[in-house]
UniProtKB/TrEMBL annotation:
Gene3D superfamilies: Pyruvate-ferredoxin oxidoreductase, PFOR, domain III (3.40.920.10)
InterPro entries: Oxidoreductase_gamma_subunit, PorC_KorC, Pyrv/ketoisovalerate_OxRed_cat, Pyrv_flavodox_OxRed_cen
Pfam families (UniProt xref): POR
Keywords: Oxidoreductase, Pyruvate
Protein name: Pyruvate ferredoxin oxidoreductase, gamma subunit
Amino acid sequence: MFAVRIHGFGGQGVLTIAELLTIAAVTEGRYGQASMAGGPEHIGHPTVACCRIDDDPLPGWEPVVFPDAVIVRDAALLHVSDVFHGLGADGFILLDSARDLDDFGLPRLTRYRPERTISMPASEIAQRELGHPLPNTALLGGFAALTGIVSIIAVETAIRERFAGRLADDGIEAARDAFAFVRYTERRRAGLLPVAQAQE
């Protein structure tokens, strides 16, 4: 089983991210389960959603205590709550921020594998593609690139199932842009880009 915990503030749509990720997993023939942890959202308060993905049917809902991946919807949470609680050293971290993770001065981050942690300007990508800084679909695209747990095609299918028309089209573009951003960052880190391109 692959477990994901999504942290945000109430009203930021963390459950939507979990539900879309679940739909993406189901479209690829697996089982998925999304739920809020700790009850309903309260606007402006830290809130957590969970998603579990498995090749076998999932039992009754359980909170995700030891996630394989953590998505942080709002960087302000890094200094408010322990968003990395239970995340092993091999876990994935995806943060919505234009700032590098190192800029937040969190010594605990050094225990995680650099190639599995990334900050990504998901809100900026959403602003460009959607006209407002709601980064849920961008975060899903980045998550697909970072983890490989679901494909970008499955993410696009999930967006189409949840939204319609222009909203779906723009959401898919945001997901694709975020996917490309993470893949570019991975290649740059690995030294696989020409020097001139890597310095852009």
